[in-house]
Amino acid sequence: MKVYAGRTFLMVTRTGGKEHLWIVATEPFGSSGDVVIVSLTTDRPDKEQTLRLSPSDHRFIRWPTVVFFTDAQLKPVDEIIALIRQGEATFHDDCSEELLQAIIDGLLASPNTPRRVKNIVRERT
Question: Is the model's pTM score more than 0.90?
Answer without folding.
Answer: yes
